[in-house]
Amino acid sequence: MKARATMSRLEELPRLAVEPYKIEALIHVVRNDLGYLLHKAVEQTKAELSASEESVFRFQDGALVIEKRVTRRVFEGWIEPELRQIADCVDRLMAGTLMEVAQVDGVFMTGESSFVPAVRRVFQERFGAERIRSGDEFTSVARGLALRALEA
């Protein structure tokens, strides 16, 4: 995004925008390499929405201040396409294995997204809450990959 041509185009946009301050905020984020910090603020809000029905997204750098209340319902609307993709993937997997749901003893959920209630719901609706397992959500994938590498 910091390429000269991209920045030049971004800097033209505020003159044409209905809300130029939003474009100027984006320019500030790009120019000052704040993408990672912005991502961390988004992740914080996502984590809070996994535990609560609402959260306040906060990001600040100098004069740039973004503060917005977000509900879990709105967040789930934003991620609806991804939830549909996950559900479709699970359905294709089950159809491809020719297994019945009753044959699945447990579903192990891992990774940060496994904390998102809407993601968990996809699996609970298909397999039942009693079959959902989790643990070591942040390290289990890395541990599995390390074990696989040792076998190779």
Write the layout of secondary structure elements.
Blueprint: H1 4-12, H2 20-31, H3 35-51, E1 54-61, E2 64-71, H4 72-78, H5 80-97, E3 107-109, H6 117-127, E4 132-134, H7 140-151
How many individual domains?
A: 2
**Strand adjacency order, main sheet:** 1-2
**SS-based class:** alpha+beta
**What summary fits the major beta sheet?**
2 strands, antiparallel
**Total helical segments:** 7
Overall pLDDT score: 93
The proportion of strand residues reads 5-15%
What is the CATH architecture term of the largest domain? Answer: Alpha-Beta Complex
Low-confidence stretches: none
**How would you sum up the global shape?**
elongated
Broad CATH class of the largest domain: Alpha Beta
Measured on Cα atoms, how large is the radius of gyration? 21 Å
The run of helices and strands is HHHEEHHEHEH
What does this structure look like?
The protein has 152 residues and is an alpha+beta fold. The protein contains seven helices and four strands. Strands 1-2 form a two-stranded antiparallel sheet. The chain has a two-stranded parallel ribbon with strand order 3-4. Helix 5 (80-97) packs parallel to helix 6 (117-127). The model has no long low-confidence stretch (mean pLDDT 93).
Q: Which descriptors apply to this entry?
A:
single chain; 152 residues; alpha+beta; Actin, Chain A, domain 4; 2 domains; 7 helices; elongated
